[in-house]
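The aim of this short unit is practical: by the end, you should be able to scan a pair of folded records and say something sensible about each. We start with the first protein, listed as its amino acid sequence and then its structure tokens.
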Amino acid sequence: MAEEPVGPATDSSAVTAPRPWRPNSILYPAFFGGPLAATVLGVWNAWRLSLPGRALALVLAAGAGAILVRFGLASLLTEQQGTMLLVGGVTGVAVWVVIVTGQRGPFRAQHPANEEPASLIRPGILVAVGCGLLEAGLLGLLVG
């Protein structure tokens, strides 16, 4: 007769989401990277928090709306570069407001107070720069 293992079974194939980012920390990449960066980080953090599909859809809808507003205003304000940059920051912050509203409660409920959240420095900079450049290229094609 074979012996049964004692203790909890461990399944090495189980995938656990990494620690989430503090939702408030998404503000800086959202402002400097625009609505696309905010949307990418918001969806990514919702996944890290294991939020339901409805929360993901809300962030995606806010992001799509903000991107449409940014592109619409950019087509109207073709001669004012500074204003277009400000519109990108403001629309990114608008998406961040939706992210914070939907993720602050679950973050506080799931994240122990004595544990540090994951660092957003490297991914935040990469997403802000990458999405900012992508938006700038698309705006150049649209307006140019």
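Turning to the second protein, read its sequence before its tokens, just as you did above.
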Amino acid sequence: MQSKEFRREISQLRDKLRSAVDRVSSRTKALEDRVESRGTAANDHSELVTTLERDVQQLKKYMKIFSDRNEDLEAQSPGYKKNGRQGRTQQTL
């Protein structure tokens, strides 16, 4: 009789243990999926930042070119003269 009771308790414990292991496995899988998703998002953001950095560098080059061209045009224009204090141009009347 004790043997039957003992087997039943072992069976119940085994079922509880399996259930607990299944819950832990399920949670672990969900966490792994979240980590993978966040890793992918971080990589995507890193690529976007790299692209933006390149774009900013290119825009800085364009700004320098346009600034230089603007100064050249102002220097060629008879209606402008340099303002010595800050290097700005002003129109003379």
